[in-house]
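User: Sequence recovery, please. Input:
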């Protein structure tokens, strides 16, 4: 008897992405999925409190106008230059499907967001991964070959390293026949956005999210910004799959969050200052790390293997992220939490390392 039934030959088989663990236990100090430790803008709470549930009878606005217009206003764009989706994962997935439709391979780094190869596989897109340098940097020369598209995060994940706008421009300019996607999930924590280049380069798409800097991972809001033609192509694909991706509540909450600039800046500066403090403490504990411009630190201990530290922290109910993979198997990715959470982490590390 065959192990696989004949209908299974026609199944689209994929190895799925593994998201970071979401523990059921509320007492865990959760520094494993780069969530923001602070709540979203109080304006978001006001939307929820005043929401009329009767409206749930109706389908949402398929164009998410209120949210698209709020994002466009914040970034000084036309609404036709903004695409919104269910977290940047959804936006990235639509972008892969829309723009990476060539027989030539898409290029991205070997160490990067581990969803890229999953989307490439599920959509049957050929790809090649270019090794980062020894110190985890992108070599722009690697992106000077024939390709069917280019994508990388800036700052990169899980390294936290920022690449310069000059280097990004060199890549975008050198590849006029491909769409270049810059995944800016972490850009607000101190890196320079490529948004300034979207009017200059028709082939540049910038993707951001409300999950990190706007404290709304649970609401699932991501967005892409680019020239009108790119956005129209993405909407054509989106409206060929699911018109109603954003609930009315999501649209309203997102619009309020993006209008509250003061709260946004206040939260960012708290995280950046705790990140810099955490770098000092990690150094004192014998860790080395890249110069993170994100809300996490990619650290390696001089003597104790990362896998052992990961397990010991987990026993103490402190979750960080660890990948047992080539080149990064001795690193931990530690999300920047509140000052109190980080102090609890350092106390636990002191104990583990003594
Ligand atoms: N891009 C990068 C580089 C990320 O690390 C993440 C978070 N897992 C995402 C995109 C997706 O985030 P979200 O779907 O919550 O916007």
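Assistant: Recovered sequence (354 residues):
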């Amino acid at each position: 008897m065959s192990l696989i039934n004949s209908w299974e030959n026609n199944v689209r088989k994929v190895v799925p992405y593994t998201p970071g663990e979401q523990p059921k236990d509320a007492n865990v100090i959760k520094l494993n999925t780069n969530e923001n430790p602070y709540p979203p803008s109080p304006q978001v709470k006001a939307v929820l409190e005043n929401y009329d549930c009767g409206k749930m009878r109706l389908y949402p606005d398929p164009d998410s106008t209120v949210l698209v217009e709020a994002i466009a206003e914040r970034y000084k764009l036309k609404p036709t230059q903004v695409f919104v989706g269910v977290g940047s994962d959804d936006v990235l997935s639509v972008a892969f499907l829309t723009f990476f439709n060539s027989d030539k391979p898409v290029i991205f780094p070997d160490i990067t967001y581990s969803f890229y190869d999953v989307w490439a596989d599920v959509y049957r897109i050929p790809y090649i991964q270019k090794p980062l340098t020894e110190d985890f940097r992108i070599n722009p020369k690697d992106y000077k070959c024939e390709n069917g598209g280019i994508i990388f995060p800036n700052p990169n994940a899980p390294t936290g390293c920022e690449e310069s706008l000059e280097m990004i421009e060199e890549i975008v300019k050198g590849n006029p026949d491909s769409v270049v996607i810059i995944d800016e999930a972490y850009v607000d924590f101190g890196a320079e956005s490529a948004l300034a280049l979207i009017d200059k380069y028709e082939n540049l798409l910038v993707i951001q999210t409300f999950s990190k800097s706007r404290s709304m991972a649970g609401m699932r809001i991501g967005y892409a910004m680019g020239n009108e033609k790119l956005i129209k192509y993405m909407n054509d694909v989106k409206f060929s799959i699911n018109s109603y991706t954003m609930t009315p509540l999501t649209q309203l909450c997102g619009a309020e969050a993006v209008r509250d600039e003061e709260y946004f800046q206040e939260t960012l500066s708290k995280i950046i200052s705790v990140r810099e403090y955490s770098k000092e403490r990690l150094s004192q504990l014998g860790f080395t790390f890249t110069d993170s411009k994100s809300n996490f630190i990619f650290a390696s201990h001089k003597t104790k293997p990362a896998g052992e530290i990961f397990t010991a922290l987990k026993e103490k109910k402190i979750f960080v992220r660890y990948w047992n993979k080539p080149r990064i198997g001795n690193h931990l990715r530690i999300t920047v939490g509140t000052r109190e959470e980080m102090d609890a982490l350092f106390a636990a590390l002191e104990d583990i390392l003594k």
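The chain has two domains: 17-40+262-352, 42-259.
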